[in-house]
Design goal:
- The chain has 430 residues and is mainly alpha-helical.
- The protein has 17 helices and no strands.
- Helix 4 packs parallel to helix 6 and helix 11 packs parallel to helix 15.
- It is globular and about 55 Å long.
Length: 430
């Protein structure tokens, strides 16, 4: 590191153009169509209401499919990331998993009532493609900017992604207007094609505009074996990267709490506050809007304050949100909490990625972003399971409050992470 806080590789590398940064960010715009329509609003309800026939087993199979897909990604992501670092090429892997997600998502259009096995397998395939692709997408960040601008560039990416969520919800809203009546099911299934189309069109720029600086002209599948060896070596040498390990542990815990809030927010709104589907869509639109603003604003602030202090403030805000959700009674107050949650969501996701970029050794960035994805995906199992147990045995309010324990624990573990200070001169120039 130099005295100005910029690595030697940063100083020697030609900075990315605005067009390259925008093309990278558009991938966030693209993949949020899948996240919103397939994982949050459309496909989950279609799966439970139509495919599974409103049976209790539908919840089990939805949860099982999601858990299986996350387990597959958790196993693959460190190996794939290491293979890409060895010269396999991030862009090749990104294209492979993006195509898998898009094709599986488009195929959901052909799923009808009773086709439970097909519905489960397509969800597993699509989510593996979505989550595994993020390993390589995130790993482009250190190549696009220098350390002192990680926060704002990461924030721009998430902001463009949230804009994609809003655009997707706006286009898809008329398709959901008729609910799950027999005459409207074709429109519900069309929303799956819409998600695939959004993903395909807006993912194109990253493959043609953003350079892959580690592309190898002599690539073959032996890189997977090299990647596996490197993962094993990284585990053996992890004492040398204890600071990264501290952050990943903190991230594993606090992102578990945040993911649980996101996953169960629509269920909480439906069952505890009795919002209808239209109100839930509006609620998510509000969350995405404020998440866009939060990712930009806190992205810029983190480059001035530092990524770790900004993330600490964000986690404190999350704790306040959880406590307020425990007491909420009215829809109006719940919408207000959603606005705050959007700001916290945008900031926590963007700043976590920035801090990870800042403390990761340049030569292991893709491999460590594989571990970053591993901890993020693995955490998506524990919190939701605990929420489900508490909710079924007690109530959803107590389950929501329990999420605060993850956030508190993650906050205190984060304080043990060493992060380079951002000098006043750097913050002014950034």
């Amino acid at each position: 590191m130099t005295t100005r806080g910029v690595s030697a590789s940063d100083a020697q590398r030609e900075p990315a153009s605005r067009g390259q940064i925008l093309s990278w960010a558009l991938f966030d715009f693209a993949n949020t169509a899948f996240y919103v329509l397939i994982l949050t609003v459309g496909y989950p309800l279609y799966f439970k209401e139509i495919v599974a026939g409103r049976e209790f087993a539908g919840d089990f199979w939805w949860g099982a499919a999601f858990s299986i897909s996350m387990a597959i990604v958790a196993i693959l992501s460190p190996i794939l990331g290491a293979a890409a670092d060895m010269g396999g090429g991030k862009k090749r892997f990104l294209a492979l998993f993006t195509a898998l997600c898009i094709l599986a998502t488009a195929s959901m259009f052909f799923v009808h009532a009773g086709m439970l096995v097909s519905a489960v397998l397509l969800l597993i395939a699509a989510n593996v493609g979505f989550e595994a692709g993020l390993v390589f997408y995130d790993a482009f960040l250190p190549e696009l900017t220098t350390e002192r601008s990680y926060g704002r560039v990461s924030g721009y990416g998430f902001a463009v992604g949230y804009a994609g969520s809003l655009a997707t919800l706006a286009v898809a809203y008329p398709l959901f207007a008729g609910g799950f009546e027999e005459t409207n099911l074709i429109n519900i299934r069309l929303s799956f094609l819409l998600a695939a189309g959004f993903f395909f069109v807006f993912a194109i720029p990253i493959f043609f505009v953003v350079p892959d600086r580690q592309q190898s002209s002599d690539w073959n599948w032996r890189f997977a074996r090299y990647g596996l060896r490197r993962v094993r070596k990284t585990f053996q040498e992890f004492q040398q990267y204890r600071n990264v390990g501290k952050f990943l542990l903190a991230y594993f815990i606090y992102i578990d709490g945040i993911n649980t809030v996101i996953i169960f927010s629509s269920i909480f709104a439906r069952e505890t506050l009795h919002l209808d589907i239209g109100e839930i869509v509006i609620f998510f639109a509000m969350v995405q809007t404020t998440a866009l603003l939060g990712s930009v604003a806190f992205g810029v602030l983190s480059d001035h304050w530092g990524h770790k202090p900004t993330l600490s403030v964000t986690l404190a805000l999350w704790l306040v949100i959880v406590v307020l959700a425990f007491f909420v009674q009215s829809k109006t107050v719940f919408y207000s909490i959603g606005i705050a949650a959007g700001v916290a969501l945008g900031s926590s996701q963007s700043t976590s990625r920035s801090l990870m970029s800042q403390i990761t050794p340049p030569e292991k960035k893709t491999e460590f972003f594989g571990f970053f994805s591993f901890f993020g995906t693995a955490s998506a199992i524990i919190g939701p399971f605990m929420f489900g147990v508490l909710s079924s045995n007690f109530n959803q309010r107590l389950a929501i409050l329990s999420v605060g324990c993850f956030i508190v624990a993650g906050f205190f573990l984060l304080q043990r992470v060493e992060a380079p200070r951002i000098s006043q001169q750097d913050s002014v120039q950034s």
